[in-house]
Design brief:
The chain has about 190 residues and is α+β, with helices and mostly antiparallel strands. The chain has helices at about 1-15, 20-75; strands at about 75-85, 90-95, 100-105, 110-115, 120-125, 135-140, 145-150, 170-175, 180-185.
């Protein structure tokens, strides 16, 4: 009989351990919630970083294309003129073939128009970050023009914020009408 009682008791113990207590379930649920919360925050940071990198790549592509077009337009130009109007500043470059290339700044957007015989034949649009400023100016020598794009979101003289890298410097394209264009960064 003793043996059968031990066997019966061990079966009772095994059958009791099949389920989980309420406390064990609450611990598992709370740990799962913490892990999912951390995973959500990390996913959001990854997506934010990815969007930032995409914007940087788009801005770099716009600057590269703009540099190429500005260089070619200045090289082919015979005359340059800056015109101020309510929408922004406009740079007109009269070309050797009789066409006119205009660069129009409006906020953070720069538009390039090619006109032939008073009709628009081509249009480009370069959008930079919203905090950017675009300046078109003609220097003392009327054959020298400059396009400056300040894409910094914080003042240039402000120290770098931890985790955000250094403040960006304005990008500058300077051109001599009918001569080579050079590109340089302004260091203040």
């Amino acid at each position: 009989m003793m043996r059968s009682q031990r066997l019966h008791r061990s079966r009772e113990l095994v059958s009791r351990r099949w389920g989980a207590t309420l406390m064990e379930l609450m611990v598992v649920v709370s740990l799962s919630g913490i892990i999912l919360g951390i995973a959500g925050v990390l996913m959001q940071q990854m997506l934010r970083t990815d969007r930032g990198l995409a914007r940087c790549a788009e801005t770099a592509a716009h600057l590269s294309r703009l540099e190429s077009l500005f260089r070619r337009d200045a090289w082919d130009a015979t005359q340059a003129e800056i015109v101020a109007n309510p929408e922004g500043t406009r740079l007109d470059l009269e070309q050797n073939d009789g066409s006119r290339v205009s660069y129009q700044s409006a906020g953070h957007i720069l538009r390039r128009y090619v006109m032939l015989d008073g009709k628009e034949t081509h249009r480009d649009r370069f959008a930079f970050p919203v905090a950017s400023r675009i300046e078109l100016e003609q220097q003392a020598d009327p054959r020298r023009v400059r396009l400056t794009i300040g894409s910094s979101t914080m003042p240039v003289d402000q120290p770098a914020v931890s985790g955000y890298g250094p403040a960006r410097r304005p990008f500058q394209l300077a051109a001599s009408v009918g001569r080579t264009v050079y590109v340089r960064r302004i260091e203040r």
